[in-house]
């Protein structure tokens, strides 16, 4: 269970510098008496600002950040710099990350406007697809969890600033208070930028990271294994790299993504070394709100049509496709089985619906449940990741075969990205339709599920469709 966070009510701390100073000083005095270190988390209502503009104004390449937006729901969060962070490798990364979060919360004092959406301390998490980095060259560790120094979020027109700072017996309260005031002033100056869909046309020439013929031959080999009943499904990814004549503008690229794909989760997570992983994912892994769990089975794809009639035709083919429905059913059965392992009941629709995006449509079945007992978000994540939608079935065999077929590092591609708050609410997506950006170079990833009946040429065409969706957003 989540540790109880001591709460005090000082809604006007940011409006009165003297009161803020006195409050922080009082926190320090208790630490001198107890010999402890505390995180102080202060939430403040804000005038409407664009979290992406806040990210643009105060984020620094050598500091961690996390950005998250669901445009059609009017929700966005920018998390910048670190008050506390935790990085590790290994098979127990989810449980160790949960222990880190619980430990931080046990030593946190939350104050201010805690009744607002996204108020209070939030922990932002980035995991890699595999639990260990065999090649030693992954840009991200297997798990990164951090409590941001600054968080700015909006839910429609309700905006909140969260400042997290560490106080110990040696803390210089005057310096801490002054730094908070200065950064707050910077945030308040991050007025809405005149963001628009960037039409700067870069001459990007994609280069395959591995020859696409290798992908097609891998599909042929995988189909032979499927016929031999070695496994029933495997998801194979392909990557391309593009070089830009100038450094990519990550914020403008994110803005393009949120305009083009308002139904997707637009995200950006950094490693503090100048590299960002950005994307627009249609796939939510889990959402927990007041102990209510939501997860999605998303598998089976078809293109969108150029006309309403063509679009309806493709949708009908998808809904009736025995191959696509079989692939979708594997994901549903996996999720249901994994939730049952945790003692969680579920509800779902008897037949899949459609999730229709701007360039592609998927079979989609939402699954709902109630969190019972002491089950925590990262326990659920550990059970579900990776689902057959991004790995295969049986999972362990598929994972070993992915290592065999793919000659590049997936890193955080197709891995869980998201947040957990101090009340145990959380939301994680799967990092697909994504790219790793390093100055003027970007690596884009996409995958396709291989099952009996798959055609190598069609699977490659599906991947190219997914890659183009992200490629046209990069500027």
UniProtKB/TrEMBL annotation:
Substrates-to-products reaction catalysed = chorismate = isochorismate
Task: Supply the InterPro entries for this chain.
Answer: ADC_synthase (IPR005801), Chorismate_C (IPR015890), IsoChor_synthase (IPR004561)
Q: What is its EC number?
A: 5.4.4.2
The residue ranges of the Chorismate-utilising enzyme C-terminal domain are 212-466
Top-level EC class: isomerase
- Give a yes or no for keyword Transmembrane helix in this entry: no
Report the Pfam families cross-referenced here: Chorismate_bind
Record's keyword terms, sorted: Isomerase
| GO molecular function per UniProt | isochorismate synthase activity
* Entry similarity comment: Belongs to the isochorismate synthase family.
- The protein depicted here goes by the name isochorismate synthase
Species source reads Aerosakkonema funiforme FACHB-1375
């Amino acid at each position: 269970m989540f540790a109880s966070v001591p709460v005090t009510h000082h809604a006007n701390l940011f409006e009165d510098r003297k009161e803020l100073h006195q409050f922080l000083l009082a926190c320090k005095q208790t630490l001198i008496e107890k010999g402890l270190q505390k995180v102080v988390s202060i939430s403040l209502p804000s005038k409407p600002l664009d979290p992406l503009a806040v990210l643009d104004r105060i984020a620094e390449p050598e500091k961690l950040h996390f950005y998250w937006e669901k445009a059609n729901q009017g929700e966005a969060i920018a998390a910048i710099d670190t008050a506390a962070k935790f990085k590790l490798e290994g098979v127990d990364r989810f449980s160790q990350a949960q222990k880190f979060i619980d430990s931080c919360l046990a030593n946190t004092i939350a104050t201010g406007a805690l009744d607002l959406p996204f108020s209070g301390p939030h922990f932002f998490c980035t995991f890699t697809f595999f639990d260990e980095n065999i090649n030693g060259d992954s840009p991200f560790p297997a798990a990164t969890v951090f409590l941001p120094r600054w968080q700015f979020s909006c839910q429609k027109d309700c905006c909140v600033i969260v400042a997290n700072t560490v106080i110990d017996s040696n803390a210089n309260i005057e310096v801490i208070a002054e730094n908070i005031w200065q950064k707050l002033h910077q945030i308040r100056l991050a007025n809405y930028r005149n963001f628009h869909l960037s039409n700067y046309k870069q001459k990007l020439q994609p280069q395959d990271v591995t020859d696409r013929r290798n992908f097609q031959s891998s599909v042929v080999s995988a189909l032979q294994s499927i016929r031999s009943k070695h496994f029933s499904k495997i998801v194979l990814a392909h990557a391309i790299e593009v070089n830009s004549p100038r450094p990519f503008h990550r914020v403008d690229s994110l803005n393009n993504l949120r305009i083009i794909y308002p139904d997707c989760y637009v995200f950006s997570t950094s490693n503090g070394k100048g590299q960002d992983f950005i994307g627009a994912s249609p796939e939510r892994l889990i959402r927990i709100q007041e102990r209510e769990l939501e997860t999605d089975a998303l598998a089976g794809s078809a293109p969108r049509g150029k006309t309403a009639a063509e679009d309806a035709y493709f949708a009908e083919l998808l809904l009736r496709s025995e191959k696509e429905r079989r692939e979708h059913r594997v994901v549903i059965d996996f999720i249901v089985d994994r939730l049952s392992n945790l003692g969680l009941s579920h509800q779902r629709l008897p037949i899949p619906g459609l999730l229709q995006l701007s360039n592609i449509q998927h079979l989609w079945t939402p699954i709902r449940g109630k969190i019972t007992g002491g089950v925590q978000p990262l326990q659920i994540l550990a059970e579900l990741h990776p689902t057959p939608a991004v790995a295969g079935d049986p999972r362990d065999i598929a994972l070993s075969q992915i290592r065999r077929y793919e000659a590049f590092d997936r890193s955080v591609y197709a891995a869980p990205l998201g947040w957990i708050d101090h009340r145990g609410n959380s939301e994680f997506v799967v990092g697909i339709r994504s790219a790793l950006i390093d100055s003027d170079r970007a690596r884009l990833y996409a995958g396709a599920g291989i099952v009996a009946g798959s055609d190598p040429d069609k699977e490659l065409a599906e991947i190219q469709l997914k890659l183009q969706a992200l490629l046209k957003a990069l500027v």
